Structure formats: structure tokens, C-alpha cells
Amino acid sequence: MRIIKRCMAIQSKLLLLFLFLSIKVLAAEPSVSVNFQTPVKGKITSATDGLGLPGATILVKGTKTSTTTDFDGNFTIDVPNTDAVLIISFTGFKTQEIALKGRTTLNAALSEETTALDEIVIVGYGTMRKKDLTGAVASVKTKDLNTVASSSIDKMLQGRVAGMTVVQRSTQPGAGISVNIRGAISPNGNNAPLYVIDGVPILNAASADQTNTGTYDLKTGIDRDPLNSLNPSDIESIEVLKDASAAAIYGASAANGVVLITTKSGKNGKIKVEYRSTVTGQMMKKYPEVLGAKNFREQANFWSKEYYLYAQKMGVYGNNPVNLSGYNPIFADVNNYKTETNWMDEVSRDGFIIDQNLSVSGGTEKTKYFLAYNYYKNDGLLKNSDFKRNSIRLNLDQEFSPKLKGGVKLSYAMTGANSASFGPEGNGDNMILNALRYAPDIPVLDENGFYSKSYRQNINNPASFLSFTDDTKTNRIFIAPYIEYKIAGGLSFKAQGGYDGQQSTREFYIPVAARNTTVTTGFGQWGSTNLSSGSAEGFLNYDKTFNGKHRISAVLGAGYYQNSGYGFGLGGYGFFTDAFGASNVGIAEERSRSEIRSWRNERTKLSQFFRFNYGYDDKYILTFTGRRDGSSYFSENNKWAFFPSVSAAWRISGESFLKDSKTLSDLKFRVGYGTSGNENILGANSLSLYQSGYNYLFGDTMNTGLALTQISNPDLKWETDYTINIGIDYGFFNQRLTGAVELYQRGAKDLLDYRTLPSNNAVGRVAANIGETQSRGIEISLKSLNIETETFTWNTTLDFSKFKTTWVKRNPAVSLPVYVGEKDQLGTIYGWKTNGIIKTQADKPSYMPNAELGNIRYEDINNDGVLDSKDVVKLGIGLPNTTLGFGNTLAYRNFDLNFFFYGAFGFKRSLGQIPDTWVIGNNGVAPGNTFTSISEVWNSQNSNGWMPGVAVNPYDNSNPTATNDFFLTEASYIRLSSITLGYTMPAKLFENKTIQGLRFFLDAQNVATITKYKGFDPEFAVQNPYPQALSISLGVNVNF
Amino acid sequence: MKKNIFKQYGLYLVIGCMLFTSCEDALDTKIYSDMTPENFFKTEGDIKSGVTGLYVPCTTNWGYSDGGTGSWYNALFNADTNAYLAAGFYSTDEGLAYGEGNVYENFTIGPASGGALNNTYNVIRFVARCTDIINQIAKSPVSDAVKDHYTAEVKTLRAYYMFALLDWFGPVNVKLDPSTLGDNTILPRPDLATYVGYIESDLNDAVASSNFPDKYNGDNANWGHMSKAIAYGIQMKLYLHQKNWNKVKTATEKLMTMGFSLLPNYEDVFNNARNNEQIWAIPSNTASDNYFVTEILPADFKKGYNLNNTPYIRGDEKVFISGWQVYCMRWDFYDTFQNTDKRKKSMLERYTTQSGELKTRTVMRGAIPLKFTNTQFALYGIQKEQPIIRYAEVLLSYAEAENQLNGPTTNAVNAAALVTERANVSIPDAAKAGKQAFDDFLLAERGRELYFEGQRRQDLIRHGKYISGAVSRGKNAQDFNVLYPIPQYVIIESNKIVKQNEGYTN
């Protein structure tokens, strides 16, 4: 009670103001007068299919008299006289005004809304007409996306929103995806946007299945996209709030933009059943090749001899004469191998995706429902690697009275993912890594039927990974109820609740039979993670036009949010049987190695927010937005934050001189400034902590130890982002060509950085707000209806963005190396420049006197005769800064064809898949396999090789960045990411039949890539990537 | 009426939300699984777990992730090439790496080499953590006896960390004043005398403590903790490093009165836990493996035979577990052992491969310095404690100091003879002829007795033979290579206030 009292005092002023406002508005409700009436009857139909439109609104112009159509589209309304004008409106259709001119029967066909101008766009806490927008908002309809053969909406958005960069982290089924909007400018923070599903902010940062694998590094295989639990087909539209003036209403969570996802709702009208089934086959694209058995043996002998010469300083490697009497070849007989195994073949297969969607939707004027079920399963290109989803959704909307409505969005998804342990990084023990290295002259099973062992023991049998269990199951439930009450005169109140709960378990087992060399006695692990986020929000919406010219729409509200998580796990080593897998970890015998752990966290946020939008004559529009956030994540001295924004727009096409222009049908100029926060960086960073996990063995007992790992900073703050945005919306030729151009400068101030404490301190860093970065960019989007005839239409979409992210202010407490510029671009690659390899003594530069033949030749940039940090230069940027999405849809009679290109430009990547002379030649008796490109490595017999040879370069130890440009190449690419060909059966076939529509389609994904990059794929530049697939899908859509 | 109810409720809801929004108590940061200084260091148990955390760099297991930097580090006594202990093997005459190009072996190390260089340097943070814990102990409400005990323990450990840094990098800017722990100013490196003074002072405080136990050889629960004997042992190492022979003698003489003795059988020293010869050994079990044997066994290893044809099998005959074939003993060094030397039984000079072939020194790059002979286990690691300071080293160090001070006296020769007699070898008369001859003999004997225990680099440097030996093996070693470079990041972050060791680039 005491708390409430205190809070009352603090809040009383605000409350008074609020009450005053409400009373004023309530008092303004006008009274309705009664006159003599004439009844008018009629039917409202859809111009598209001629069916009646139930729930359409008929309003007598200039009065408050209105009615809605019944189930078949019929209506009756009383008009004061037969000269009245009726306004007929229906969501999604063009509003018509029809003068009765004496008639008492009126039939009207409404055509579907097509112009972008009157389009309703979802913004935070409400909707706005597109023409009232003053900020940078991109809107995507799911029907325009290709929802075939991918499990998550993120992936589908690649190239669809100008300014949104979507990078897949792997091609494994359901793999994680990195998304950022307008450049990742927080060097230490999270750069992912906030996702809001049906008005409820969700937890997206943490994937629920991060159970670690303890001492065995297989964590990478489970990097998956948390949005996998959302069926893309359930989504109606996606709005991306790109600049701070649009996003500021989400305050401290909005620094990286906001992605608003709206799921489908029922529409009133007849019951609509839609079934879509897609079957996809995935074929592996060309994978980097490794040596076959004989070649492997020859190369092992060859390279071990090369290493021998090098070790003995013989021939080209020194002054000693070549004498091979002490050299023993690894394979006495290169032909004497019993078998030849292609390990990639052993662990891979053709992939398969099945995607089944069934939805039932419909409703009456008062009740609307959307019910959908989805089954999705992807068997990946690697065996023991799959992803599956079962999801069900029920969206209900109910009107209780003309003033009160409510509803709930419910979804439940079960996802399951198996992975035979491989991931984007792959530096742990990994099936593909082993498949590339395991000797090809050894069979899968040895003579006793056990998994064979390679020459080098710590290269595990790739096929043995297929006996692992790595099974993650996630259940996600999402409940979002709301009620909405129309108070009066354009004022309404909405209360919105949200619960998003994810429960995930990972079962992991390495059988004894796998004969894994790191885990010899079996390892079982079982872990569970629970994440939940709950929210409650209440807000007032006010929407009213005064005198036909002054339009005000406003939002004022508050919210309470709580995220919490907990998890536990247990693991054991030493299994006498594989019979139970991880189901009975208790039988593990090596007690001293058993693992138990648990964790918990919690975070609470309280917020108040408002938006005020004023438009004059649909020409001049002004918006103010603000949000005040208080968070338990924030530090002691900075518990509350306020994020304001202001923006304005001038609809030039609304001016008299352009009003009637068909050529320039829309032109709007927007400008805005706003701030938002990045809170995801804070956590417990502001506190001083002794963390557990520093255990030590005394005698035979592992003792619990804690270590000082963090020093407090009670002043720590969120990062503040600001955006200045200038935008132009344009429309030409009566809106056949529309789009927007955005210019922006986005900056992050008070960057979370670590004030580096000197190396002699216990803790190397204190979290602090230091430094500033910015990103400047341009975005161009375009939608065009190129050709439209009775039988042929051609649409084009183009989304282009280019940005540059740079440092503005650095951490003054951290000395920059000489080669780093104060205002360098983020993601700059620093290193030594190279100039080929040293093939002869004469090639050896004077500043590399100790170099050996076959070494990379570095450049002494400053000509001081020494290679050191002064010779480090900028070699390029590691991340794309220009992206392009380009799509075309052609429709001819009943055929439609769509193809979509995605491109990313302006970055460099290191060539992956570099042959390894060490693994094949420098292990003496224990060679491992490597890529066939080893023939291009320089050696004493082949002076044409272009890659560096076996000799260790003594200058590498003086390269402060350990980076050089020898293998660094331009990685820009354009990908033909999908082609879809569809055929819709002629509608007349189905007249009065149960089936209302039928469409077949054929789709190809990941068709071709154009790039200068010579490695496997510029998007997945790792040494051992998951294989790429060419996916071919066949699908059918049936409407009942 | 209905309308009014909704109006009312709607308003209440909004009001409720707004009230909620200003309740500051809801916004307290919640920490569930870590300790903050406010709730820590209240009991002896708290202190014990704080002290335990300081030992993490001393494990034989792989290493630790340091939450203070967000990076992972190999522990000092891990047998991997990225660790302090092992990196010292193959820069000397005793070992070499199977693979070519090791920076320690080839003397090509530079400030950007990373690996063992950075891993070892990170111990400097643990010096500061020790300083913090000493300060926290002083402030905690526990009894003076408890404070005294743990303070002495932490000071001994801190002294060892400072010694390890001195060994590789020379004097560095350690933090011993708790008031500077959060300080951002970079201190320059102290001079040698000052730095040695820091170590001396910590060790003197530790041995003066009346609550600090002498040793834990009989106490399984506490084995591995610092003790007075270890403090004397570190004194011995420090003064050997400084060639302060008087003080070496004092420290070793003290240790010779503490009840330690040589075991009759050399192999037992490494096979038996907490034996009477161990002054400081790193405990190991399946929760904290020792990977030494795995690092040295060849990749095709099935069964080994030492000189006397005693078989050595690793793992189950059916399920072979071989090794990672990382480093071996140079044959030149192996040949300094006499054939009668019993210590040779703990090395392999031939072995059977998994395909049944017998390999001998004609095809082996070097001998296999097994050391731990009783390790027939199914697992990759062995569960044998790693000796860091043992009594044989005390005897040989005593002999060396005595010889330096007074020549090869009976005391000096007798102490060394205890070690050689156990090995079934004798000290040649020529070695006893004079101070230099005996000194040379002791260096060679230390090599044989303490082979692959991480001592060789220090011993060779002390005798001035480290660089010359490397040059004679054809390495491009130079005088300044007796110290390793300070890691590049340290120089950069300090804006060059921390000076690089002479001879290295930046």
C-alpha cells in the first residue's frame, strides 16, 4: 500500500491531465435528431467475384445514420429523402459515394482497394493511412513473398525491404539468420530489430535451445532462427519501421528498427477454406572436392617429403644437398588400398521439404475467425539433419456491442530439429570438417564392424556422427488477447495483453559405439530452457477530423513488460550401454565428470508512450512521438529514459497545382528526427560480479571457485540512436509507378563499449558508454506495373540500399593501433598487403631476409626496411553495404511467372577451402585429406603453384593483425534466388462447385549466383560450410 | 449502464497501467546466479571459494574462459603447445615438435604470435585478482587466524604467478595495491630489483605466517593448495633465476628439513599421488585430466616398449587410443642417458603401430618421453598429477648453490648423489674435479632427472647455454630471445608506456 501511495503522488499530475482530457472528449459527444424517413434497399457485392459482401457499411452522408449489410450483402436503410447520398465502405475495398437521385433500391459493386495512397499501414499502437505517414515505413504483404521452401519469414524478406540486410548464417534446415536495418552500428551490442507480433513485442534475441555441450564443442550445430515457430503463411503483412521517427514509440527497444508482423484475421463473408501443399526436392550444388584414395596417398607422400626437405634445410630450403636416405614415405605402395570412400557421399543425401497448409477463415459482421494448421518438414542435405514444425493458429475477433470489441490471437507451435552437429562456425568437432579431412582410403566400418579409425586419431569418422542424437524440441505458445472500446467521438481505448512462452529441450548423446576420440566412453546430456515474456498495455486512440481539414490522430498509453528465463541441464560421461541414449543420464559412471547446472534471469520494463499526428487538408502533416521507459536492466543511476521524435510531411500532390496531374499522381516530402534506445546491451553489465565457474581440483574433489569478472559502473546507460530521415514518396502515371526514396543519417551515441582496463587489472574491461558511430545511406524502392492488358500484366519491384557505417568518436581510454583511423568504417579489415609468393632467392625482398621460398611476400608499405604495425593498411570491408532486391511478375492469361534476384555488394571475403599441406604432409604417419586444389600450392617441384608453400613464414609473428590480403577477394554477388511458374485453373470451371479456385505452381530456389568470388559461396565464407541446395518445388493451392 | 461500466473499467485499466509504471521497486536489477561484493566474503566458505577461483590458471586440464576479458586461455600446466609448461620443452635441447614451424622451437616468436604468449601473460590478471582477494579477506568478518591462513596462501600463489611472468617476460607492471585495481592509468614496468622485491616480500610474509600449514601431502582434501613448503620452493626457483646462491641455499636447506624424501623408484614419483617427493603437484582426475601422455604418443601408437622390452600399452588392446603426436625427445638428448640409467625405463625408444609394425629409432623422429608409465586408461587424458616442484629438484638446486659458493664440496656432491644413485648412475670423478665441471654436470643431470617437467629452459638460460645451444642446432636465435616479447595488445593499449622487450618489433 505504501508503494501505491508514493506512486500516486508521483503520478497524480499526469492522471489529472488525462482525466481532464477524457472528460472534455466525452462531453463533446453530439446528440442525434430524428426526422421523417424513407427506406432504401439494396445489395452490395464485390466487383471481383460478384459475391455479396457481408458487413459493408452504408452511411447516409452528412448524418449519423448508418447500417451494415447482412450475410448475403443485403441492406435496408432509412434516408431523410431520396436525394440523399450514400457512402458505402468496406475494409479492403474502395469507398463509393452514390447519390440516390430518387431511387429506393440501390445495388453497388465495390472494387478492391488497389491504390497505395489509401492503403492502411500498421504502425505501433494503431494504424495510419499511408498518406499520413511522416516516417520511413516499409510495408510488405505476404502474398507478394515467395513462401515456398523456407521455414522462416526472415529468409523470405531478403531483398524485399530496402535497407534491411538479411544474412543467413548457414544453410542447414531452419538455420539462424542475422537481420539488421540500416547497418549494424552497435559494435558491441545487439543489432537485431525488435519484432512485434500482433502488437506484442516478442523475445527474439535468444534462441531457446542454447543448451551448451559442456566440454564437447558441438554448440554450433544448433544455431537456429527463433522465428521458425511462426508459420509464414499465417502472416498477412509485415511493416518495417526504419527510422527513429517511426520507431521511437517503441523507445528503448527500437534502436535497430521495428518489424511489425500482423497475422491474418477472418473477414466477414462466406467460409473460406484454403489448402496449399508444396513438395520440394533439394539437390546438392557442387561442393569443394577432396582428394580420392590414390591421389591422397600420392599427395601424402609428396608433401611429407616436402616437409622433410624443409626440416633438413635441403634443396630450395637451405644449403644442404638433397639426401632422402632418412626419409620414409608414408605409403610404401600408393596403389595398395582396399577401398575408396567418398565421405561427403556417406554423410549427405538429397534433401526434401514437405509443406502443408490448411486454413479456414470467415465470419459474420460480429464474429471473425481465422484458423490455420501447418506442417513443415525439411530433411536436410546432410543426413541426421532436419527441421520440422507443427503449428496451429486461431485468431478470433468479436464485436460485443457497437462500441466494444475484443479478440484473441492464439498460436501454438512445436518445432523439432535434429542436427548431426555442424554449424556455421564449425571450429568444434564437426561432421563436415571430418568428412573433408578423413582419409579416403579407409572404409566406413572396420573388419569388426566398428566405425573405422583414420590415420590421425583426432579426425573422427564422419559417419560416426550419424549415430549421435542431437534433438532439440521447442514448444512455443503465443496468446495475445485484446479489448477495444469506442469511448466517443473518435476516442477509443484498447487494452492488449501478450504472453509468449518458449520451452525447449535438447537431448544430446554421443554413443560409445561412435568411438569418438574426444569422448571415448559416451556422453549424454539433457537440458531445458524456458523463456517467457509477458506484457500488458493500455492505450487511448483518438482519431478525428475537424471542419473537414484538421485531422488529428493520437495515441497515449502505458505498458508493463516482463521477460524471464530459466534453464537447467545435466550431463554425464561413461555409459556401459548405448541402449538408453540420453534418456537415462543417471547411469553415467564417471561421477567426477558429471555436469549439473541451472540459471535464471528476469527483467522488467515499465513504459509510457504517446504519438500525436496532425494533418491539415491532407497536405501538411506533423507527428510527435515519445516513449519513456524504465527497466530493471538499466543501471542504478539511470533507471528511466525518454525517447522523443518529431517528423513532418508535405504532400505536394495535394496542392492545387498538382491535384489533377495524372503523370505525377503522388508526391510527398518527409523529414524527421527521432531517438530510440538500444537496451539489449546492458544486462547485468553495470554491476560488480564474482562469477562462478572458476572451479579447481584439490585432491580428488572439484571445488567451487568464483572469480572477479566484472567491475561496476552505476552510470551505465543504453545506447541512444538518432536518425535524421528525409524521404520522398512518389507515384507516377496514376500510381502505376510508385515508390520511395529515403536518405538518412543514423547514429549511435553513448555506445556500450568496454573501457579497457590495463592488462594488469583483474578485469580487463568495464562496460561504459563511450564513443559514437553513424551510418549514412540511401534507399530506393520502386513498384511498377509495366504492362497491363486484358491478358497480360507485368509488375516489377526493386529495392536498393546503400550505406556506409563509420566511427565518429572513439573510446578515448583505448589507444588505437597506428593503423586504425579515428573515423574508419565499421567492419574494416586491417592487415598486411601481399605481393605474390617468393619463388626464388631473387624474389626475396631486402626487408624479409629470413624468408623461405614459398612464403608470402609482404609489402613494406612505409619502406623502412622492417615489417611491423606501420605496414598495416586497410584491406577492405567485411560486410556488404549495398543490397539489391529485384523481382518481376509476369502474368499471361492463367499463367504467372515470377523471378527474384538478390544481390549484396561492396565487401570482401577470404577464400574458403584453402588446401592444407600441414594436415596431409606434416603429421608424419598420420595424414589427413585436403582439397584437390593442393596441386596449386607452390613446392620445390612445382614453381607454378600460386598458393604459399610449406615453409613457415617467420614474419607472420610480427603481423599485429594476423591478417593479410593474400586470399582476400571481392565477394559481391547477385543471386537468382527464385523462379516461380504458376497456372491458375480458369474460374469458370468451378462455377457453383465446391472448389472455388485451383492453382498449380513450380518453383526453383537458389538457381544461380553471379560473383567474382572463387570460393564455395560468398554468403557462407567458412572453411567447411553446410552444403548448398538447388531446391525445386511443386505445389498446389486449392480454395473451397 | 453497460456503457458506463466499460467506460469505468477502461479508465481504471489505464490508471492502473500508469500507476504501475512509476513503481521504482519493480525495476531493481535481478541477479540470480552470480555474487556481488555486497553479499560475498561474509564467511570462511565465501573466502575459500574466492581463493579457489584464483587457482584456475594452474590446472593441467585445457584452461579457462576469463569472464574479465571475454576470452579463453590455456592454463599454465596444460601439456598443449599453447601453454606455458609445454612451450618451454621444444625451445631447448631436450625436445622438438613433430610438425615443422613451431615458433618456440625455431625462435621466430614475435609480439603477434599469440597462443602460449598471450595465455601466459594473462596470469597478470590473476596477480590483480589475488590482490583483490587479499583485500577482501582483510575486510571480511572472519577470525584473524582464518585471515592469516588465506592471506598467506594467496600471497604464495601470487608470488608464483609473478615468478612465471618474470621467467617469460621480465619484470611487468603487476598490481599489488588494492586501491589501484579499478584504475585506468597505465603503470610502466618496474625495474628488476623492485619486481623481485615484490615476489620476495610475498613469500617472506607467507613463510612467516603461523597459520599457514607446512604441507598437505597427507591431506587428500586439501592437496594442491599452496603451503609453506611451496613458498620455499618458489623462493628456490626465484633465487636460482637471480643466481642468488646464498638464498637458494637457505631455501633448499629449509626444505631439506621438512620431511620430504626421494622415493626409491623413479617411476613411482609420477605414478603415485601425493607422494613424499612432491612439494607441489597439480592434482588430476577425470574431472581435470592431464593430457601430457596423449600429446607425446604417436598417432599410430598401439603399444610401446622401452629399452628393456617391458611393454607399455595405452588403453584397451581392442580399442586403441593413440596420441596426438605433438612433440618428442631429441635423440641427442636421449643419448645423454647411460644405458644403466633406470630413468630410461620411463621413455620409449620403440613401439608397435596399430597395423602391427614395430617402429624403432631409425624411423622415429625422437624418443617418447613417457614419464607417466602406469597410464593404461580408456580415456584421452591421464589422471596423474603433474609435478611442478619436487624434492629431487631441491637436492640438485642445493648442490648447485653450494658448488657456486664453495665448490664441489661433500655436501654438494652428496646431495646430487642421492638423485643419481636412485637412477643407478654415478657421478663421474671428472665432474667432481672443479666448480665449473660440477656445474656443467649438474646442468646435464638436471636435464635427465627433470626431463619434460618444464625446467629445461630456465636451467639453460641460467647456465648461459640456451641461445648458444639453439644456434648450434641451426636456429636463428639471438641473445634477446631469453625473454619472450610482451604481447602486441599490451603495448598498443598502454600507448607504449609499457616498453617492449629489447630486440622485438612492434
List the helices and strands and how they pair.
The complex is a heterodimer of chains A (1040) and B (506).
Chain A: H1 2-27, E1 38-46, E2 57-60, E3 66-68, E4 74-79, E5 85-89, E6 96-99, E7 105-110, E8 120-123, E9 126-129, E10 137-141, H2 153-156, E11 164-168, E12 177-181, E13 194-197, E14 200-201, E15 235-241, H3 244-247, E16 258-263, E17 269-284, H4 293-311, H5 343-347, E18 351-363, E19 367-379, E20 386-399, E21 404-418, H6 431-437, E22 469-488, E23 491-510, E24 523-546, E25 550-573, E26 595-616, E27 620-631, E28 640-651, H7 656-659, E29 664-678, E30 689-692, E31 696-698, E32 701-703, E33 706-710, E34 719-732, E35 737-749, E36 752-756, E37 765-769, E38 772-788, E39 792-809, E40 828-832, E41 834-837, E42 856-858, E43 872-877, E44 882-892, E45 895-905, E46 908-910, H8 917-921, E47 968-970, E48 973-984, E49 997-1011, E50 1029-1039
Parallel strand pairs in A: 1-7, 13-16
Antiparallel strand pairs in A: 1-4, 2-3, 2-5, 5-6, 8-9, 10-15, 11-12, 13-14, 15-16, 17-18, 17-50, 18-19, 19-20, 20-21, 21-22, 22-23, 23-24, 24-25, 25-26, 26-27, 27-28, 28-29, 29-34, 30-33, 31-32, 34-35, 35-38, 36-37, 38-39, 39-44, 40-43, 41-42, 44-45, 45-48, 46-47, 48-49, 49-50
Chain B: H1 2-20, H2 44-52, E1 63-66, E2 71-74, H3 84-87, E3 95-97, H4 103-106, H5 116-121, H6 123-139, H7 144-169, H8 192-208, H9 228-242, H10 245-255, H11 266-271, E4 278-282, H12 292-296, E5 301-305, E6 311-313, E7 327-329, H13 331-334, E8 350-353, E9 358-359, E10 386-390, H14 391-406, H15 410-422, H16 435-449, H17 456-462, H18 466-472, H19 488-493
Antiparallel strand pairs in B: 1-2, 3-7, 4-10, 5-6, 5-8, 8-9
Helix pairs in contact in B: 2-7, 6-7, 7-8, 7-9, 8-9, 9-10, 10-14, 14-15, 14-16
The gist of it:
By secondary structure, chain A is mainly beta. Chain A is built from 8 helices and 50 strands.
Low-confidence stretches of chain A: 1-34, 423-427
Q: Give the strand content of chain A.
A: over 45%
Largest sheet: number of strands, sense, barrel closure of chain B: 4 strands, antiparallel
Per DSSP E runs of 2 or more residues, the count of β-strands of chain A stands at 50
> Which strands sit side by side, in order, in the main sheet of chain B?
6-5-8-9
What's the mean pLDDT score of chain B?
90
In what range is the share of β-strand residues of chain B? 5-15%
Shape of chain B: globular
**Quaternary state of the chains:** heterodimer
CATH architecture of the largest domain in chain B: Alpha Horseshoe
Q: How many individual domains of chain B?
A: 3
Class of the largest domain in chain B, according to the CATH hierarchy? Mainly Alpha
Shape call of chain A:
globular
Number of helices of chain A: 8
Fraction in helix of chain B? 40-55%
Largest sheet of chain A: 22 strands, antiparallel, barrel
Q: How many β-strand runs of chain B?
A: 10
Q: What do the pLDDT scores of chain A average to?
A: 85
